[in-house]
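USER: Write out one fold?

ASSISTANT:
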Amino acid sequence: MKNISIFGTSSDAGKSTITFVIAKIIQELGYSVAPFKAQNVSNNAKVCDDHSEIAVAQHFQAEVLNVPTSYHNNPILLKSGQKSSASLIVNGKVVASKDVREYYRELDGLKPAVKEAFEYLNKRYDCVVCEGAGSPVELNLMEKDLSNIYIASEFKTKIILVADIEKGGVFASIWGVYNLLPKPLRDNVIGVIVNKFRGDITLFDKGIEIIEKEFKIPVLGVLPYVPFNLGFEDSQSLMNYKQTIHAGAKRIAVIAYPTMSNYNDFEALIADPNSALEFVHNNISLKSFDQVILPGSKLVINDLLWLKENGLFEQLQDLDIEILGICGGYQMMFQNIIDLEGIEAKEKTSIKGLGFIDDDIIFQKEKIVKKASYRLFGKTINGFEIHHGCSQKYPISYENLNIKGTFVHGLFDDILFEEYKKKTINSFVEIMKNKLDVSTIMNAIT
């Protein structure tokens, strides 16, 4: 059986979603399938079964398929750092903080890790469904493209294009990407999926005719826009969430600082009609909310400075409603945050925190990456930790009066949410499967 690459004709075309949909359909036909992305750029990560760190999207795809999660699903992960730098995570472990230009200069040195991870999955599964990154034909970057061109060329994957009709210019994006692909890769294109169509799909019948007859590219399906509140990977996906809210629902403010991370912590709350979630991006009054959450942060010190500059810091100190900190947000609640190792800053740094908790946070070079069962705030949580900051007095959590905090992600997940996830995923896949030309896809890879 041949492997598949999912290429977007633009960024945010829906590659992550289509990857797990295609993979799930193939799995339901009786084949073993694994998700893969050579390189991801995301501040949102999860801890795998092997205690490595990978992007949320690949972890979620593996969960959908009920296969073990591992760094092999996402061997290279970049997280934003100071200015033009990025935290480089290879095989699930932090190896360096690099300038982005330096990273691209040394890209060939990462190909062995990508190749080893892909071959590991290829030996163990009938089909590897490989998610691309952005557009595969950024001409100035094609030689440095690990997720699209390298994988498709090195491993001769079959290719499915995904085009986002919601953005406009869908014909130009399909024609342009297809014709800018190297000839050997064009020959491996199975067809195109037109994604995120709103309204009567029959209105695009003429569009299908144009793509198939004039472009000579098979249309594998026109997929409807369906809100999907799971697997949030970036701020764009977060903006598209939809909530059904009951009267009298608990009003929750999530402080959305510039490098907020791990949005998936809030998927369970979004699914709960008794919780009304609002992401706060500026200094609005917080007094009308029932709870304020300080979420995870990729750059804790920078985001704490942001709170101070816009006035939210002082407002938080005066609140008497429940304030909950998660990971980076938890660290902001301490007396001081001390970075003597240059984890977030090039120079030794110390900054005053909110002062809710009687201890300091010390950044350590060795990153804590852990998946475990925790007893927190009266319930058992199957969660995970990803952090450099450490507290000697409160290494896991803190609770006193209206202040609660923890390093642990996954605080709101429970059995009811797991049932909701399973039902939502199965329903979503079924809708998409009925709109896809599954037989053409399967004929191309078997």
In short: DSSP finds 15 helices and 24 strands in the chain.
